[in-house]
Amino acid sequence: MTGSQRLTKKMIDEARPVPGKPTFLWDKELRGFGCKIEGAGTKSFVLQYRNSEKRKRRLVLGRYGVMTLEQARSEARIKLGDVAAGMDPADEKRTARDAATVGQVCDWYLCEAEAGRILGRKRTPIKASTLTMDRSRIESHVRPLIGQRKVVALRLPDIEAMQHDIAAGKTARPRGEGRGGATQGGKGVAARSVSMLHSIFAHAKRAGLIETNPAVGVRKFPDQKKTRRLSRDELRELGQTMRDVADIEHPVGLAIIRLLALTGLRLNEAQSLERSWVFDDGYIAFGDTKSGPQIRLIGSPALQLLRDQPSIGDEPFIFPSDGGQTHFVAASGVLGRINQKIGWADVTPHTLRHTFGSIAGELGYSELTIAATLGHAAGSVTGRYVHIDEAVRSAVERVSKEIALLLNSAPLNESQPSQL
């Protein structure tokens, strides 16, 4: 730039990185204010100045895209005023970074993520469901174990020790009345908590809140995915138990559990269903799921169940809450009480999703078709595998009818042979 040209958004947007080295765009009106373009393409607002000791300093104000040009310009003016008063903003920022605790960084992350200012792996704001899980892990595991520790003092052994403590149940606590029992920690929970903390530190480092990510290089326990699924006999027992408790359990919760079994939907997908998403052709159009927007085929037993749900005025949800302000959220608790009645300790809503896929496998469908019936990203019905639509539709219908038959059947007596 030449003359007294003012730095503009267009200039920053059009600036191209030079591989292997940073470049700068300087504002000619506000001396020392500019934008740094990293070789990888990251753009950040910076302020360059000399402190009272005449030492040249450079301060990162914020990342372009998170901070606007005018916000950065305003912040630069404030910092230059501090410099004129004899202060050194770079030292102050370094002191703040050095003083930040793990708990404070987690609080920053939750606040920024809730406001949509932190982007996930797909360059989109972090989903509310993900944020709910992150908050739970922070409050249940991270904060009690290392929340008061300063990030700058953390080392890999500290984070790996946290992982071992979580796995050993050091942060275990009683659950509510839902699924019963107490949280037991475990290697899966521990590994996911460490992965989350690594991600939080990476976001904080990118924003200039901390200088290094102390979780880089941590060795996590291998992910132990749950493989529990219901056998055919157990599906019969589940159906009978739901009939037995029909007079004392919440009918909406029971309907959602049945829908999970008939479709393989995720719990939050089923509970939050809106009437406008369901079409008579036998599919649900989701605006957003764990894998993004999707169309999911459902079988006729599931479609009939949805049609049978009473409509209350202009209520958009198929499964409204008792207060009518939002959707029902207690299906997991209903399933937990059914578990207790049957004597199961390891059946969750996700078990029903595994069960749908398992029955599809027993019926001879391929992994690709099963993935599509469950809405996995690689098997999106409306994505790259349009040519298998009819195969998926046939599979969904057959599996849904098979599960409906099992749920509606009485459990086998010991004298009756099990039919596979």
From TrEMBL:
<dbReference type="InterPro" id="IPR010998">
    <property type="entry name" value="Integrase_recombinase_N"/>
</dbReference>
<keyword id="KW-0238">DNA-binding</keyword>
<protein>
    <submittedName>
        <fullName>Site-specific recombinase XerD</fullName>
    </submittedName>
</protein>
<dbReference type="GO" id="GO:0003677">
    <property type="term" value="F:DNA binding"/>
</dbReference>
<feature type="domain" description="Tyr recombinase">
    <location>
        <begin position="225"/>
        <end position="398"/>
    </location>
</feature>
<keyword id="KW-0229">DNA integration</keyword>
<keyword id="KW-0233">DNA recombination</keyword>
<dbReference type="InterPro" id="IPR013762">
    <property type="entry name" value="Integrase-like_cat_sf"/>
</dbReference>
<dbReference type="GO" id="GO:0006310">
    <property type="term" value="P:DNA recombination"/>
</dbReference>
<comment type="similarity">
    <text>Belongs to the 'phage' integrase family.</text>
</comment>
<feature type="region of interest" description="Disordered">
    <location>
        <begin position="168"/>
        <end position="187"/>
    </location>
</feature>
<dbReference type="Pfam" id="PF13356">
    <property type="entry name" value="Arm-DNA-bind_3"/>
</dbReference>
<dbReference type="Pfam" id="PF00589">
    <property type="entry name" value="Phage_integrase"/>
</dbReference>
<dbReference type="InterPro" id="IPR050808">
    <property type="entry name" value="Phage_Integrase"/>
</dbReference>
<dbReference type="InterPro" id="IPR038488">
    <property type="entry name" value="Integrase_DNA-bd_sf"/>
</dbReference>
<dbReference type="InterPro" id="IPR002104">
    <property type="entry name" value="Integrase_catalytic"/>
</dbReference>
<dbReference type="InterPro" id="IPR025166">
    <property type="entry name" value="Integrase_DNA_bind_dom"/>
</dbReference>
<dbReference type="InterPro" id="IPR011010">
    <property type="entry name" value="DNA_brk_join_enz"/>
</dbReference>
<dbReference type="GO" id="GO:0015074">
    <property type="term" value="P:DNA integration"/>
</dbReference>
